[in-house]
Amino acid sequence: MTAPTKPNPSSPSADALHGPVIDWFEENARDLPWRRAAAGPWGVMVSEFMLQQTPVSRVLPVYEQWLARWPRPADLAKESPGEAVRAWGRLGYPRRALRLHGAAVAIAERHGGDVPTEHAQLLALPGIGEYTAAAVASFAYGQRHAVLDTNVRRVFARAVTGVQYPPNATTAAERKLARALLPEDEHTASRWAAASMELGALICTAKNESCVRCPIAAQCAWRLAGKPEHEGPPRRGQTYAGTDRQVRGRLLAVLRDAVGPVPQAALDRVWNEPVQRARALDGLVADGLVEPLPGRLYRLPLS
DNA sequence: AATGCGTGGTT
DNA sequence: TAACCAAGCAT
């Protein structure tokens, strides 16, 4: 059985992919605010945090609000973490807001207020992992990095490896392939990173892929193989109704919409099962998303 | 390495 | 309509 990340014998060469994909990108790239020069490294970094597991359409309005309110890392660093959580609104995964605030504080303290340029420095910031460090270094600073997000992984799985979907978790073989496909020239590499991601986002989508508009359809290993169905373990479903996540979301929504501290009685109304409710609230406090005050009061964290 | 972590649109 | 999906990270 062939490893799912091993290129097919008939897989296209790197050189055969770069030109068509980058040319397609020049013509079809979306005009997103974080792609404009005015966004700067901070705009790129904010957008990357917001886009972790969240669609572009929902990020756009919140991104504009954040950049208008906190145009530099030091501006956000001066705020309380709770204000960041409040301004995060309903983007989801609010720990990202906390981490972005923490990253802004670290940038103000350690990097003179400028988003660091080095991959290792970026990786050391809270909320920044392998993908985001590479994305900021590549998109904001034009550096040569393999930017391996879910879109790129899917494009490589199909075009090169010949399977419908990449593995559940990113494998060493995928990283190796991404590095092998990276153009040598720095500027070309950064264009390739953005272009291959955009191809996955717009054309080579998880469902209803649009091969007729794909610039590399003629070379795509998966299409040439007759687009075989995904085999292997199904991707882990994400149930939500009835989970602690749902309870946490409801609790935090009350605190976001409140001006001052909220009595526990008000929080109790969002979920009728007391054990799960208490567990969810404790979890929010443990995560630093909620601050308990004397007298059974709660608020978003002031520090 | 498997799991937990929000939310809303689409099929 | 329940399931799936959306530029991951931390533990």
Automatic annotation (TrEMBL):
Keywords: 4Fe-4S, DNA damage, DNA repair, Glycosidase, Hydrolase, Iron, Iron-sulfur, Metal-binding. InterPro entries: DNA_glycosylase, Endonuclease-III-like_CS2, HhH-GPD_domain, HhH_base_excis_C, HhH_motif, MIG/MutY. Transmembrane segments: none annotated. Its EC number is 3.2.2.31. It catalyses: Hydrolyzes free adenine bases from 7,8-dihydro-8-oxoguanine:adenine mismatched double-stranded DNA, leaving an apurinic site. Its cofactor is [4Fe-4S] cluster. Belongs to the Nth/MutY family. This is Adenine DNA glycosylase. It comes from Streptomyces sporangiiformans.
